[in-house]
Predict the 3D structure of the following.
Amino acid sequence: METSVKKYTFKDFASDQEVRWCPGCDDYVILRSMQKALPEMGVKKEDVVFISGIGCSSRFPYYMETYGMHGIHGRAPAIATGVKLANQDLSVWVITGDGDSLAIGGNHFIHVLRRNIDLNIILFNNKIYGLTKGQFSPTSLVGQKTKSSPYGNTQPPFSAGELAIGAQARFFARIAGNNPKDMTQIFIEAHKFKGTSLIEVLQNCVIFNDGCYTSYTDKEVKDDKQIFLEHGKPMIFGRNRDKGLILNGLRLEVVNIGKNGITGEDILVHDAHEKDPTLHQMLIRLQDPIVTGIIRSCKDVTLEEREDALTAQVKSDSSFSKTDDLFFSGETYAIK
Amino acid sequence: MIKEKKPSTASLETVVVRFVGDSGDGMQFTGTQFSDTSAMFGNDVATFPNYPSEIRAPQGSLYGVSGFQVHIGSIEVRTPGDEVDLLVAMNPAGLKTNLYAVKPGHTIIVDVDAFTRKNLEKAEYDNNPLEDGSLENYRVIEVAMTTLTKEALKDVEGLDNKSIVRSKNMFALGMVYWMYNRSTEHTIEFLNKKFSAKPHLIEANTKVLNAGLFFAETLELIPNSYNILPAKMVSGTYRIIMGNTATAWGFLAAAEKSGLELFLGSYPITPASDILHELVKHKHFGVKTFQAEDEIAGISSAIGAAFAGDLAITTTSGPGLALKGEALGLAMMLELPLVVVNVQRGGPSTGLPTKTEQSDLLQAMYGRNGESPVIVIAASTPANCFNYAYMAAKLALEHMTPVILLTDGYIANGSAPWKIQSVNDMPEIKSKIIKTVDDNWSPYRRDNETLARDWAVPGNAGLEHRVGGLEKDFLTGNVSYVPENHELMTKTRAEKIKRVENHIPLLQPEFADEGDLLVIGWGGTYGALHTAVKQLHDEGYKNIGFAHFNYINPLPKNTEEMLNRFKKIVVCELNNGQFVNILRMNFNRCGFLQYNKIQGLPFGNKELIKKFKELVA
């Protein structure tokens, strides 16, 4: 199927609708990264579906020249599940924000991950409610002053990644909103992954939470404050590639290569495929530096594979081929 | 052991038997066997189970009583009956909670072994009703069923005491078979199948069944056994079907007829869960069932499946419909085909989960934000749940709209003979699916006659488009806040539903085309209302007509014209007056009368007859 796909460019995936996000919003980066990633995936335009909830991010489907649905608040994972179960040939993408999927849609968010249906979820996490104009979200920090927390937020935040791993996410990636190159690649990898893949984008909100990630993402600091993981490669980072992560007891520790006898050999090698999520959880929790890239990518049976196998079994055990066979089966009786 | 009290005779045309006991006593099984056997004999039957909402209430308690009522007839029977000719009570609690339903002078069989001091206390009896004269007006047959069952099974090997005592329901069934001249053949066949791996249980149950039958015969405790002759029913192949099963099967038929795959997204809730239980069995037909994490995910997954081209349904009961409201509004806005089944129960809130009511009608009509019209239809018998489920799917697919199908606990759990309908004989279903693009295509292009839009599903090149809950342009479906467009869209969506009236049957009043009184009902009260009006008609009241509504939004086209042929109109509902207000709103006519019952119970025959007689007096 994929061989016959025509060669698209990113323009083929741009709809005729005017994009209406605030100037400078990272959403533009995510949109363009997706439009660039799709031609690389070898998937037909008509087989791609974007499903969103409500929020700034959720306008995304309107801007993609594919099939799409702008749904209702928090329910995109459930809608997308129906789409995928109805037609497994489709490449289904859920577009959601931190309020959409971690607050009103928290229930659907954890269950879609648990089931491991073959969907891709892009979580735009700007730690604020943008569309409703600036209230704190489930990822806002304690003490954060917002429209609905003028004296400081008193609710501790969720970590999207930890929550996801707790719900058995098999694929979790995190990427800065100002890193289109790696973002594009992660989208492609998420597409290839069979199962639910979750990509958390650390997305700046220029209006209500400007600079919420600058301490990690600013040009000057990003190399020292972010570590970008790749499967099979050592966890090395820093402007001079001289820092790395080691495991010290039950803690991750940042070390300097070349100091205190530490060599490149001592640095942890990233294994995204490891089934045990313990180390992945620790990586997700790390604050300095924060971990980006594909942190976990661990293949497992998907919901639709289980369903298909069960259906095939039931079909082979059944003597019914049409509904009349059922209607006239069992205890029937004739009235003359 | 047996006390003869005032003998009486039961009607030969119909008889109503109710089996009651503890929720572990096998009353549902006993009742089902009696009704199935009678149906196969050729009787018309209607049944209704009534069980506690607790899974296993304490034994012997008043609220733990499980009952199963069977109405059999040599004539048409349209309800499970409201008064009982024979009550079989396996314990004092069953007697106490069901005595009210027994016709004076009629028969009660009790397991006298269960009338112990402890059980009498649990049933809150001060005195033993078998001894204090309080049952004087009934013919009470006291049988030591537990003792006799033990006696019958003393030679069967491999049975523990519990299994022995549990089979006493078969003793009761045997007695009832003798009383009504029924063969045990069907039940024995059933036991052979059910216990094929446990021969000792076949032997035990068969022995006890026969013991009950021989006991009744030998002791001649009933002067004559009653004979209910076969009913005159349309010839054909029948089966006994429960309303919820019929609903599930209607969707199977619609999926096959439309050539679409069936998708059910649902969350368990009483009394709708049996539709899920039934459909999940039929993966061999390609049925996809998704037990979601909540009601909202149930309907949302169905909306996704509808977007992707499946015949999508979601099933629920009142509180679940409340949760689905927002998503239902989305489906309406997207103009996607979707069937929502609401098996109504007593509300509001958690209300009366195992009791019946018709109080979700206005929720179905209006329970969404904004102006959000959908098709609303209601089934009226266990068997016609099949037809209305089928019609719900047909209307959804042909008019590109959500359809709410209302049933209720009474018809969903009740069972009746169903003349099996072959899918070949069902009306055509032409979905609006399009696979290829043409020059004029636009996501919200509409059929001139029905105003239904095309159904372009993912996977088809050239038809890529975006839909959403935001108001959309009349043609392109793009987001539009243009004031005039919103007004046009609101009116178009309303008109689309209104035009469905051209595709549904006209109302046909029964018993009288015009006259002094028109009795109006809708949904699951059909049997009770029909029975009452027919009885009056047979008594000589030729001035009373009966009109039953299965299509509620839109109403049948001839509704107003029909209303005007009657002097008085009484609208009968198991709620505080919801449908009557829909009629008041739609038709400029004074004096709609109401008859409402809000007790979690179906209409009784006597109360209806009394009311209708008053109205024509």
Remarks:
- The radius of gyration of chain A is 23 Å.
- The CA atoms of residues 144 and 150 of chain A lie 8 Å apart.
- Chain A has a mean pLDDT of 96.
